[in-house]
Design brief:
The chain has 677 residues and is an alpha/beta fold. The protein has 20 helices and 25 strands. The chain has 4 domains: 113 residues, Tetratricopeptide repeat domain (Serine Threonine Protein Phosphatase 5, Tetratricopeptide repeat), CATH 1.25.40.10; 125 residues, Immunoglobulins (Immunoglobulin-like, Sandwich); 156 residues, Rossmann fold (3-Layer(aba) Sandwich), CATH 3.40.50.2000; 169 residues, Glycogen Phosphorylase B (Rossmann fold).
Length: 677
């Protein structure tokens, strides 16, 4: 059942001289009067003068009522001032679909800072301040499936309740550029650090600087500058790639530059991209660091590319480096877990409900030494349970006025000194709440695990979990089950293999029709929905010839388009079969009965792996090999690239013609496949 939709109406402005003047003012007049208020408010906000900024934004909003982003700024200032309730009221007044998602995110943040849900509803001083106040659409009768929390009365669009599924006018953000000359930085390196609550890039090894540059004139190159406050220098002049945008007046260019950070001065600098006199420069602070021994801990990520040691240029070194062969059967962790810190510094009931999760943790890592961090009052309970080799306590005094606990400085120093020599492999916070998560940072553990990893970006693994009572929307899952769910999710993440889902339907007739016999052929799948994912077709042809020349197996090649000019009219061996246009059942039958499947980062490789067929995937670095490499038996062939993780679907926006997948050699893929032949 579709949620009922209602149109809202705005109440007419109140009478009065000022209201009539506002109503009569044209938009240019409103802009002329309103913008100075906003600019002054911006200045006050930058100086942390929160109340003065709020006054300025409210005055600006009187003249610029369509600027709902100003309501968000009002909320941000009130939040910084400590007025969380006022902040949430400001955010709640944002009704337009453009800014509503950001307002909802800020409401959640204000609620977290306040430690409670402040205001789940949109409220105002009077009904005229809210859109939809005269909406009298009748409410539907409640049913077992249509409870109040599932009713959505949309005032702006009848299909808004569908989210992105209800829109057909969306255009990919990465393809837009801007409507004015500008530089939009999409990536600066892969590592980052937190400085006063703001993320700044850490430059280590060979790093990528990717940007979209919108210019009124064609560009061939841009300059990358570094400024340490005393001097500014150009560190690289690099080419850009023009992108066709269907007759747009402003030209879109793509930058994908690879810079060896080992040749840059250490420390914090302002890095900017400059594209000539017609385009304003754009930049950010970056931090150039020494990698040292850190490089060995980053080996599982294709985004980390060590600096060349033989004097090669970064481009040459990256492209000529051999491909990485990664096992398809893999765990979340890159090293054995031999020592664990389990944190639950709460009251007796919370700790008692967490003991089954600690017991399960011991089952998962039977060889690990477990240390538990708890409050002094529950130490005896932990020791009597026999779940930990060591129990460490920490006192978190409770302040009745603030209704909060805090970590005294002396306790922090004591824990830090104790844990510095512990060398934990894994530290896990079993509390679903947010308060104690920062204690994990004291552990110096290699891997950090806990709830709500979207909010705590330093976690290596975590889950967000909500259950709901259908009437009051409070939690329904027991606390013990909630904590255990985190550990069970970890159990899935550390298990290297998944059981195959075997095809039960017979495929004999399909195979006979194509001249194939079960396990007597290798499947090569050349296609993918996005061109950026595809290993070159000529490489697949060369691989097919290598297989039929070196083994007794046939090769079945799936070629998306039989009219593709890169597909040869004839092949050297009749044991190479070209297949196209099969229905899903026949396609599944041929995959499921293959001896081996080799394919791109696309759906067929996942189906083959799920059917239990050894699979070699030629992985494009637009996404992490860890996430989208197939499971089960086989190998993931990929290359280290500074721009790994671009997430691009459009080959035009790459700037390097998908070199991450196109530079993988036929010999490298054949060597990866040979153990399964």
């Amino acid at each position: 059942m579709s949620p009922p939709i209602a149109k809202g109406r705005r109440r007419a402005p109140a009478d009065g001289p000022f209201a009539r003047m506002l109503a009569a003012a044209s938009k240019p007049v409103r802009l002329w009067i309103g913008r100075p208020h906003v600019r002054r408010a911006d200045t006050f906000r930058s100086q942390s003068e929160w109340i003065e900024a709020v006054i300025g934004y409210r005055r600006g909003l009187e003249w610029l009522p369509w600027r709902e982003d100003l309501k968000i700024q009002i909320g941000n200032c009130l939040k910084e001032y400590g007025d969380y309730r006022g902040a949430v009221k400001a955010y709640s007044s944002v009704r337009g679909s453009q800014h509503r998602p950001e307002a909802m995110k800020q409401i959640a943040h204000a609620n977290r800072l306040a430690g409670t849900t402040i205001l789940p509803y949109a409220m105002a001083e009077g009904p005229g301040e809210l859109i939809g106040d005269e909406d009298d659409t009748p409410l539907p009768a409640l049913t077992a499936r249509l409870l109040p929390n599932r009713l959505k009365l949309e005032s702006e669009g009848e299909r808004n309740w569908l989210g992105a599924l209800g829109r057909t006018d969306h255009r990919a953000v990465r393809a837009r550029g801007n409507v004015h000359p500008s530089v939009v930085l999409d990536q600066v390196g892969a590592l980052s650090m937190d400085r006063d609550g703001v993320q700044e890039p850490l430059l280590a090894g060979v790093v990528a600087i990717r940007a979209r540059i919108v210019s009124p004139v064609p560009l061939e190159t841009v300059e990358i500058h570094l400024d340490d406050g005393a001097a500014k220098q150009c560190i690289a002049t690099v080419p850009v790639t023009p992108v066709e945008r269907g007759g747009a007046k402003l030209r879109l260019h793509v930058l994908n530059a690879w810079i060896d950070s080992a040749k840059l001065p250490r420390g914090r600098h302002w890095l900017s991209v400059e594209a000539g006199r017609w385009v304003p420069s754009h930049g950010l602070f970056v931090n150039v660091i020494e990698v040292g021994e850190l490089g060995t801990d980053l080996a599982s990520s294709n985004s980390f590319v060590p600096s060349p040691t033989d004097g090669q240029a970064p481009d040459t070194a990256v492209v000529s480096a051999p491909a990485e062969l990664r096992p398809a059967a893999r765990s979340l962790f890159d090293r054995p877990i031999r020592s664990i810190l389990a944190v639950r510094v709460d009251q007796l009931g919370d700790v008692s409900a967490s003991l089954p999760a600690v017991a399960r943790l011991r089952e998962l890592f039977p060889e690990a030494r477990v240390t538990m961090l708890v409050q002094p009052g529950v130490r005896a309970v932990i020791e009597a349970s026999g779940l930990a080799e060591e129990v460490v306590t920490v006192a978190l005094p409770y302040n009745a006025e603030t209704e909060r606990r805090h970590l005294p400085v002396e306790e922090e120093e004591r824990l830090r000194a104790h844990f510095d020599e512990a060398h934990f492999d894994l530290a896990i916070d079993l509390c679903p709440g947010d308060e104690t998560r920062p204690l994990l940072l004291l552990s110096s553990a290699t891997y950090l695990v806990g709830f709500n990893s979207d909010r705590f970006t330093y976690l290596d693994f975590g889950i967000g979990l909500r259950s709901r009572d259908k009437v009051n929307q409070l939690e329904k899952l027991s606390h013990a089950a909630t904590v255990l769910t985190l550990v069970e999710a970890l159990a899935v993440a550390v298990t290297p293999r998944r059981p195959p889902v075997i095809r039960v339907a017979s495929g004999d007739a399909v195979l006979a029709g194509q001249g194939l016999s079960p396990r007597g052929y290798v499947v090569l799948h050349t296609g993918a929905r996005h061109a950026i994912n595809r290993w070159p077709g000529e490489h697949y042809l060369a691989l097919a010839e290598r297989i039929v020349a070196g083994t007794a197996h046939d090769v079945a090649i799936f070629w998306d388009d039989p009219a593709d000019p890169s597909r040869p009219a004839a092949v050297a061996s009749e044991r190479i079969h070209f297949l196209h246009g099969l229905d899903a059942g026949a396609f599944d039958a041929i995959l499921a009965n293959a001896r081996l499947m080799v394919g791109n980062d696309s759906g067929p490789k996942h189906l083959a792996a799920t059917r239990g067929v050894p699979t070699v995937s030629v992985h494009v670095d637009r996404l992490n090999w860890n996430e989208w490499g197939q499971d089960s038996e086989g190998v993931i062939v990929s290359k280290r690239m500074p721009c790994t993780g671009c997430g691009l679907n459009d080959l035009q926006l790459c700037g390097r013609d998908a070199v991450c997948v196109r530079s993988i050699g036929v010999d490298e893929v054949y060597e990866a496949a040979r153990p399964y032949l």
